[in-house]
Structure formats: structure tokens, C-alpha cells
Design goal:
The chain is an alpha/beta fold. The protein folds into 2 domains: 8-216 and 341-366, P-loop containing nucleotide triphosphate hydrolases (Rossmann fold, 3-Layer(aba) Sandwich); 219-334, 3-Layer(aba) Sandwich (Udp-n-acetylmuramoylalanyl-d-glutamate--2,6- Diaminopimelate Ligase, Chain: A, domain 1), CATH 3.40.1390.20. The chain has 15 helices and 15 strands. The strands form 4 sheets. It has a 6-stranded parallel sheet with strand order 2-7-1-8-9-10, sandwiched between helices. Strands 11-15-14-13-12 form a 5-stranded mixed sheet, sandwiched between helices. Strands 3-6 form a two-stranded parallel ribbon. The radius of gyration is 23 Å and the shape is globular.
């Protein structure tokens, strides 16, 4: 009698939102592929969605489907999406069994003929409890082992890991181990040593420590434009330039010069020609220390006259404009959390590299 191969079944959770679950999913999927492991992916409960074939699909699921060309069962990869009003409607009319049945049926469909599945959760272990589908509940339903992603730090990180593990313990979900993400590079070895020992005392494996990389948190000018609904004034051909810093240019030009950095997005009122000229001259400087600003955002519904406009266009710097004031725009950008998109080839490559270099994938596979 032929022995049935056991499915390698991972549930990726975290101690908070935007901890790096999708980065890990992208990297693990690639690493599994390189080991000839037929891998599926699903995000049972999604919150941020895109429209695909007239159905709301979780953004992260769509990303994985595009990157790894596995969209055949994409509706099953994203069985439940929580849109506006969904939670309130559920509280008034609970449908626990129907939701769980839908998730489990989708799970069975996409794992058929596969060796492994990566299941991505939403936020921390308790997220989804209001729908009777917390991460811990779903992991238990699917028979997964959980990996918890934590941020850098020592005491707080371990405290939050144990809090999340407690919810998985209640639902009898084995915790495969922990990955510490977004650690300052100069603290990498210290975190690996100290947190590793702290987790070992709790009987938890440390599966990896990943350094923080500016690239993964850097949006493009185009992504900022789309998120804030800004208009393009000029430089459309360079909208994919990455933004690593934001400068509010409300000061005099001679003060602004000292704040310019490579990859900086300069936000200034549309009538501050002086600061526009400083940004342009820094961008165009060919001799000495050239600063390649990422772009300009002109605020207050103001735009420069045709002479300055011509100079901006000639510089090819991406220039956006808005009717809103400088500080509203700056605050909105500060609060952005850039999600990896299918066009972010550099980020996708970096996510794969980080998992390959800093996560013990062999240890994960050996313990599934």
C-alpha cells in the first residue's frame, strides 16, 4: 500500500500588522520551489483587497499569484475578504460554520497534488476573533504549524511572542518557531544570541533573524501619487523612483540644503520657487556631491509660472501637486505602509534574498 505523503503546512502569524508576513511568504515560496517542493499559498481571511475577475481578492494573495504564476485557483487562495460593514453584519448574523466550511473547502482544493502550503494570517494571533476566525482558530482548522514573526528588541519581543503563543496553545496549534524581523544591522548578532537564548528557555526555536532594509519600506513616487491621489505636473517618466526620506521644505533654501538626501521627496508650497530651484540644482549637479532627490510635491493648489515649470520639466524630476497643505501631505506620507506590489521587482528579489540568507529554511522543513 502506497504511503500518503504528509503535507508540509505552515501558518505565518505575527505579533502585529506589517511585521513582514508577506516578505516571509515570498521568500519561503521561492526557497521551497528551489527544493522542488510543490507549494500552494492561501490567505484565508484578507482585509485589503483588489478586484480580480469581478471578485475581491486579498492584495497579498494577488501578489503571490502574480509572482509565482499560481492564479488558477486564486479565489480559493483568498476565500474570505472582510470589506466595509462585514464585521457588523457578522455580529448581527453569525455564520461561523459557513465561513469555516468555505475556508476548509478552499484549502482542500488548492493543496491537491501539492507537497506544502504557506498560509498567511492577518495581524497577530487574535485578529479575526470577532468573526470566530482568529489566526489561531484558522491554523487549528487547517492543521497548520505556526511561525510567529516578531519585530526587533529583546524583552518586549519575547513578551509579545509568548502572548501570541498562548492563543495558539489554547487551540492546540504547534508553534514551529519564531523569526525576528527588521533588526538594525549592527544589532543582528546580539539579538540572535540573546533572544535565541531567551526563546530556548521557553522551548521555542529561533528560525531566523532578518535585518531591516530601507528598500522594503521605500515606496515609489508613483505609489505615493496613487495612495494620496496626487496629480502629475512633470517627470512622469521617472515616477518609479524610490523615496527613502521626506523633507518638508518650509525653511529658507540655505537651511534646506543641509537636509537634502539621496532619495528624498521634497514637499513644498507651490509658490516656494527658491526651494524648488535648490532641489533641481542638487539633482542636476554633475560635479562634486550630487544629491539625487526622488521628487517634488507642490502643495496648496499652487504651481509655478511657465519659466520655472519649464526648468522642472527639463530636469525630469518627478513633480506632483495637490490642493492640500504641506503638513497634511507630509503626515499622510508618514503614515503610509507600502505593501509590496507585483511591479516591485527589486523588493521581491530582496525578500527572497533575505529569507534565503537569514532564515533557517532547512530547520523549518525538518520540523514540519
Amino acid at each position: 500500500m502506497k504511503k500518503t505523503k504528509r503535507l508540509k503546512n505552515i501558518f505565518i502569524s505575527a505579533i502585529h500588522q506589517n511585521a513582514g508576513k508577506t516578505t516571509l511568504s515570498l521568500g519561503l515560496f521561492k526557497n521551497f520551489q528551489e527544493r522542488k517542493i510543490k507549494t500552494a499559498f492561501m490567505k484565508p481571511v484578507g482585509q485589503e483587497t483588489v478586484l480580480y475577475e469581478e471578485k475581491s481578492i486579498d492584495k497579498d494573495t494577488y501578489l503571490i499569484g502574480e509572482v509565482y504564476h499560481c492564479k488558477k485557483h486564486i479565489k480559493d487562495m483568498s476565500p474570505i475578504t472582510v470589506g466595509r460593514g462585514y464585521t457588523e453584519k457578522y455580529i448581527l448574523e453569525p455564520q461561523k460554520q459557513q465561513i469555516q466550511d468555505k475556508i476548509f473547502k478552499s484549502f482542500q482544493t488548492i493543496t491537491r497534488g501539492k507537497d506544502a502550503i504557506i498560509v498567511e494570517g492577518t495581524g497577530h494571533a487574535g485578529v479575526g476573533s470577532v468573526l470566530d476566525c482568529s489566526n489561531a482558530d484558522v491554523a487549528a482548522l487547517l492543521g497548520s504549524q505556526a511561525i510567529i514573526i516578531s519585530g526587533g528588541g529583546i524583552g518586549r519581543a519575547i513578551d509579545e511572542i509568548m502572548l501570541n503563543k498562548a492563543l495558539f496553545d489554547i487551540r492546540n496549534v504547534p508553534v514551529l518557531g519564531v523569526i525576528i524581523n527588521k533588526v538594525l544591522p549592527d544589532k543582528l548578532e546580539r539579538i540572535r544570541s540573546i533572544v535565541g537564548k531567551g526563546l530556548e528557555r521557553k522551548g521555542i526555536r529561533l528560525l531566523g533573524v532578518i535585518p531591516e532594509m530601507d528598500l522594503l519600506s521605500a515606496p515609489t513616487v508613483e505609489q505615493i501619487k496613487d495612495r494620496l491621489d496626487l496629480k502629475v505636473f512633470s517627470g512622469e517618466e521617472n515616477l518609479r523612483t524610490r523615496v527613502y526620506d521626506v523633507i518638508v521644505a518650509a525653511m529658507e533654501p540655505y537651511n534646506m540644503i543641509g537636509h537634502l538626501r539621496d532619495g528624498a521627496l521634497v514637499i513644498t508650497s507651490g509658490d516656494r520657487v527658491d526651494n524648488m530651484l535648490v532641489a533641481v540644482s542638487s539633482y542636476l549637479l554633475q560635479q562634486g556631491r550630487a544629491v539625487k532627490v526622488a521628487g517634488l510635491v507642490l502643495t496648496g493648489g499652487l504651481t509655478p509660472d511657465h519659466k520655472i515649470a519649464g526648468l522642472l520639466k527639463d530636469s525630469r524630476i518627478p513633480v506632483l501637486y495637490s490642493d492640500q497643505d504641506t503638513y497634511t501631505i507630509a503626515a499622510a506620507i508618514e503614515n503610509m505602509t507600502p505593501k509590496i506590489q507585483k511591479t516591485d521587482r527589486d523588493k521581491i528579489h530582496e525578500a527572497r534574498r533575505l529569507v534565503k540568507d537569514y532564515v533557517n529554511v532547512d530547520m523549518i522543513l525538518e520540523n514540519l
